[in-house]
Amino acid sequence: MSDNSVKKTSDNNNDKNLVNIYKLVVLISGSGSNLQVIIDNIDAGNINAKIVAVISNRANAFGLERAKKSGIEAKVLDHTQYDSREAFDEELQTLIDDYSPDLIVLAGFMRILSDNFVEHYTGKMINIHPSLLPLYKGLHTHQRALADRQTEHGASVHFVIPELDAGKVIIQGIVDVKVDDDAESLAKRVHQIEHQIYPHAVKILAEGLLKYNDGEILYHDKPMLEPLKKQLITS
Ligand code: GRF
């Protein structure tokens, strides 16, 4: 698909109040705790944006309840009903574009996305991955960090490109690995730092402080040479 533009013909967005608001579509598959902190930050006035839809590929994703509770449109697009990845992604793209979002936020969306889909949203789609990229792309990141006896681990928010977990990183949250950590205890602390860095990334994107420009990140209109960093402080 060569058309990179996001369709602007939504019936959903004829509401004049929405014209100047930075619009998010959030994709989830599960609990949606990252979705929740983004909702909370918007409600608290920390992020100047509106979530226009939450879409899950799983009907039982708890994040759908979180969305409904906050009055956000919650949709299910069940990938098992499609013959191919491409067919599902095409339908998902149509659904998303109907909301004319400024940003697509992957928040625990457990699907590999086809290249055409990803390229359609170049510079407009971000993901949070539970590792300090480029370390530990893919799954089981906490186990792998422990097996390598890392002293630091964490999470990264990055732009999505066709290569898995390989897009430019916006911000990383760092946690110390403790001697008695197991994958569960480590995952818990990584989640804590995720809940700080993901809303921050959305905030600076919504404010236009951070931009994607031809494969590079601009921060305050200057090339960002390395990701922003935040360390988890625990007592
Ligand atoms: C997070 O750990 C994130 O790093 C990964 O999926 C998980 C989503 O958690 N991509 P939640 O659904 O936001 O609680």
Characterize the structure shown.
By secondary structure, this protein is an alpha/beta fold. The protein is built from 6 helices and 11 strands. It has helices at 33-43, 62-69, 85-97, 115-120, 141-147, 183-206, and strands spanning 23-28, 50-56, 74-76, 103-106, 125-129, 152-159, 169-176, 210-213, 216-219, 222-223, 228-231. The strands form 2 sheets. The protein has an 8-stranded mixed β-sheet, covered by helices on one side. α1 links the parallel β1 (23-28) and β2 (50-56). The longest helix has 24 residues, at 183-206. The N and C termini lie far apart (50 Å). The relative contact order is 0.14. Bound molecules: 5-O-phosphono-beta-D-ribofuranosylamine (GRF). 5-O-phosphono-beta-D-ribofuranosylamine binds next to α1, β5 and α6. 5-O-phosphono-beta-D-ribofuranosylamine (GRF) is lined by residues 30-34, 107-108, 128-130, 155, 191, 194.
